[in-house]
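Researcher: I'd like a structural prediction for the single chain below. Treat it as a standalone chain; there are no partners to consider.
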Amino acid sequence: MSLWLTGIGVSRGIAIARVQKMHAGDLDAPEYRLEPAEVEGEVRRFGEAHARAHEQLRDVRNQIPPGTPGDIAAFIDTHLLMMDDRSITEATVSHIRNLGINAEAALRKTRDALVAVFEQMDDPYLKTRKDDVEHVVARILRSLLKSEKALPKVEAGAEPLIIVADDITPADIILLSQQNVAAFVTEYGGPLSHTAILARSLGIPAVVGLRDARRLLRDGELIVVDGEPGHVLADPDGQALAFYRNRQAEQAEYRRNLVKLRGKAAVSRDGVKIRLLANIELPEDAREAAANGAEGVGLYRTEFLYMNRKTLPSEDEQYEAYARIVSSVQGPITIRTLDLGADKQVDSGRQLGPTPNNPALGLRAIRLCLKEPELFRVQVRALLRASALGRVQIMLPMISNLQEYRQSIGLIDLARAELEREGRKMAAEVPVGAMIEVPAAAIAAPMLARHARFFSIGTNDLIQYTLAIDRVDDEVNYLYDPLHPAVLQLIRHTIESGAQAGIPVAMCGEMAGDVRYTRLLLGLGLTDFSMHPASVLEVKRIIMDSDIGALRRTTARLLASTDLHEMRELIAALDQGDGRS
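Model: Treating it as a single chain, here is the predicted structure.
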């Protein structure tokens, strides 16, 4: 009998293959006290295990085939850097020596402390980086216990398998992707986990957060994985198999046609030009974005420079990082200033106050930078210097009122004056814009638009703050609804405020790259989309097939409706066609 299961779809595509389970990754690590004479020997044992784990991870890095997208190798590089970080190595050694406990117990104490820091972050992308800590620690722990996990093997020429596991590390995904694995299903994880991001980059269908998957699915059982809605169908009948095989063929033809859109302009059927930008983190991402027709970068995050280190990055270190990325981008690049909370500064050797009870409403992003102007000044100086190499724009995160924006501009002007006195090269003009990710900023958009040079809507936070939910919290993430009427009204109000003031309005949140919302956003008046490079061609195809005038008329009806059922019907009509009524 068929069994229908639903998790979180994180990487689109349909896979039909047999199950291969990976057993639970939980390790039974002992905890015991050491005699004083045993302490240094335990420190050496930890060091040897750490070196073995590092070598294993380096071997995975060396197995990545030439020509693989750079963001894939970057996941392993991130884990290698994290493994060597003093917050893991020195902290663990300190626990062994100061507490007189064995290496496994000391490593777990280190892990728990680091995970607690990440869990208090408000930014969903950064919050899920606790998974990296778990993966790195687990690899060292296995080395300590000499309990190496064997990956399933798919022999050359054999039928592909669908891997079902509690969780899968980035290193395992990379190795398995070279063995003709058809899809991944995991019991844990979310849309921003590295499992999800890597699966999307590799084009492998994936469903995460499907609890009890290993108990409900049997080894060798034929299943269907539909990665877009997050569906898993076990033991499908003949009719279901025929349906999904037909959809597989349709998707393959769709992907072949997408490639033909490279180099074509994103212009709608009624002649409206739409600007497609990319969200990137590495120079390699910029090359992929340009190849897919992105006209520039709408979001470049800078938090990576501040994480997993004891000291703050210097101006020159930041300048070199920004210079590399700016030099690799054709077109404008929007760089977001530091978006971390006070709770994270402990990692960089700065204690800016006690960890707040609710970091989402505490000292983070531009609030932190304005309270610690020297932190902001160093970054701004580096950004202004990098502007001499390309078309740089500076974006201020979590602006909630005009005073914050004007205070930030004052500090940026002071940094520019300093650099001018020093004879440093800069662009004559560096536009400064505001991220609209707090409902207060969206409501006050007409006032902000008279001063900001551009807006960028961060839908990830805007939705969370508007609906008062944490989308990475399994208990409430079902309430995360980009189509909530309040969210749509705030987006429209922001777009209209920008248009009335004559400033561009982009969207850099995940909504911008989700093809389910492309026609709705066009109908709301959005003309600048910023997304993962892999999404550019799909969004472009929808734009080219759309009549934006018709979409705007339908969307106006949608927003004017007070009938929730009618609103859903109109949204479905937009998703299915071009909005003609």
